[in-house]
């Protein structure tokens, strides 16, 4: 991305109502905005969900954030995520960063979801993510990531639909090779993911790709 484009992203994120409050509370703590919000920002798509990684006690942090923004706190056992659910379907998800940032991002499903941004460092791209986002390409970061959670096989097609893009050739082969692992995934998780796919525009086109 050009310097001008990066400056636009920084300005957008620094002035964002919710992000600016999170930054002000974090102060000098290591905090990153990660994932889909950044992807959608580059694609100029609206997103109500913001995901954060922070080196701090997230219960205390989200509790303080609630005093300022209001909303309801929801705790998820999987991944240790704590969500602040706000009005207008805005959600702020927080997860403790207990490892190196690059290591954390390397465990994510696809490159389009592995960007990070911080107030001090700007946009961080360890896996050529911006290239794939701008070209609307769904590319798996690691074969092991698919085997660890086979539901990502269905998610690949959903994300292709979400960005109106395509799945990279090697990733398509990988998805087909490990499709049998979906038999180990709970039925309700598969059903939920398929409904998410069906809610997309032109969903039939992406179902045919599977």
Your description of this structure?
The structure is a single chain. The protein is an alpha+beta fold and 210 residues long. It has 2 domains: 3-127, Beta Polymerase, domain 2 (2-Layer Sandwich), CATH 3.30.460.10; 136-209, Orthogonal Bundle (Hydrophobic Seed Protein). 47% of the residues lie in helices and 16% in strands. It has 11 helices and 9 strands. The protein has helices at 3-15, 17-26, 36-42, 58-69, 101-106, 129-134, 143-148, 152-162, 169-177, 187-198, 203-209, and strands at residues 31-34, 49-54, 72-75, 82-85, 91-96, 116-118, 122-124, 137-138, 166-167. The strands form 2 sheets. It has a 7-stranded mixed β-sheet. A hairpin with a 6-residue loop joins strand 3 and strand 4 (82-85). It is globular and about 45 Å long.
């Amino acid at each position: 991305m050009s310097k001008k484009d990066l400056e636009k992203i920084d300005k957008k994120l620094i002035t964002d109502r919710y992000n600016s409050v999170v930054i002000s509370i974090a102060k000098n703590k290591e905090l990153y905005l990660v994932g889909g919000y950044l992807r959608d920002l580059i694609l100029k798509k609206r997103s109500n969900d913001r995901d954060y990684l922070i080196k701090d006690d997230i219960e205390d942090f989200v509790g303080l954030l609630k005093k300022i923004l209001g909303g309801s706190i929801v705790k998820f056992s999987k991944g240790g995520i704590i969500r602040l659910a706000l009005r207008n379907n805005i959600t702020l998800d927080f997860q403790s960063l207990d490892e190196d940032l690059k290591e954390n991002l390397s465990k994510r499903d696809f490159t389009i979801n592995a960007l990070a941004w911080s107030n001090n460092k700007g946009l961080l791209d360890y896996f050529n993510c911006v290239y794939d986002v701008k070209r609307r390409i769904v590319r798996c970061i690691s074969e092991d990531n698919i085997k660890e959670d086979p539901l990502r096989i269905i998610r690949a097609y959903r994300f292709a639909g979400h960005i109106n893009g395509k799945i990279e050739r090697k990733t398509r082969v990988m998805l087909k090779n490990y499709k049998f692992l979906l038999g180990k995934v709970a039925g309700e998780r598969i059903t939920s993911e398929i409904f998410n796919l069906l809610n997309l525009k032109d969903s039939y086109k992406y179902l045919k790709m599977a």
